[in-house]
Amino acid sequence: MQAKPSRFLDRRTPPHIFTLVTIAGLSAATMNIYLPSLPRMTEHFGTDYALMQASVTVYLAMNALLQLGIGPISDRFGRRPVLLVSCALFCLATLGTLFAPTVGIFLGFRMAQAVIVTGMVLSRAIVRDMYPANEAASRIGYVTMGMALVPMVSPVVGGLLDSAFGWQANFQALLICGIAVFALVWFDLGETAPAQAAGGFREQFRDVPELFTSRRFWGYCLSTTLASGAFFAYLGGAPFVGSVVFGLTPAELGLFFGAPAVGYMAGNGLSGRYSVRFGLNAMIVAGGLISSFGMLVSLSLFYAGEATVAVFFGSMTLVGLGNGLVMPNGTAGMLSVRPKLAGTASGVGGAIMIGGGAGLSALAGVVLTEESGALPLIWLMLISVVAGLCCIAYVIRREKQLAQA
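and the corresponding structure tokens:
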């Protein structure tokens, strides 16, 4: 199933790994580069922090909604044209955020920016087009290891840009990156999706229920959703914890905010190296246990009176490490249940994952107060990762049942 070799900037061949990392990385950067600027943006638009923080939730919600269509559309029409259209629309939406006169209009364009999630969805589907299941997990691990540099660096860059030039500089940087990614897709990304039989777009959507009849798909999907849910809760709550509870400046918050990405990159590297050897399920279980351990350590130290910046953000590195093991392997599991629907599985699974993340992000914003400190967020993250472990345990049990049948 190995695709023909890639030649960089030759769109007659499959894309180079650098291109896959870049298109997925832009989606990751769009999600969190501006988070250190939330307090300043609140002042600029003359609104309250809770409404400005809703820009995280509305982005994630639209992100989830779009993923329901991206997979089937790309399975029917191909990965390349869908990516090109999405990059162009992203650039237009980013222009809108820069010139929005009110917070309501800003939130509308912020939702429209979510179209760039196409890069994250289709980078995974393209890998699955090119490789079989276990090797796909390894390759996805390498792709997301490179991509993990982006969420680690982007809040730092965002905080520095905010301090030097104002919050608009973050969105100007995203616009420049969007134009660059469009050019990269145009010149390098050859089509990898298998040709679809005639029958029309409606027939493509008619195949989607195949996924919903698979218990293994749901097990993999929910295990990744709940594991990533811890990160999305962090995404929604950490800016408040850092700026309000610990009193960090935007630049300091940007620096600490990338702690999970350090672990995530390491976990992706381990996935790339060991997924073929140990298998998807073992790697997911290991990741869930590491994340749970990280949250238990944080919780114990907070109750012992060690509620410090180092403890809070340091423990998030272990959550990132665990997610780095869970995400590529859980994603490869989802995409391998019905290989002919790899794009659809990536989109539907991603929509469920991001939709759940949006809910947990919003919940984190609700439960956190200056009086409560970070404890409600830590509890929420712990419950999420433990529930994810329960889901992969069900997958393992189901596979044993199928083997005995």
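(Above: one complete record from the training split.) Residues 133-165 form the longest helix (33 residues).
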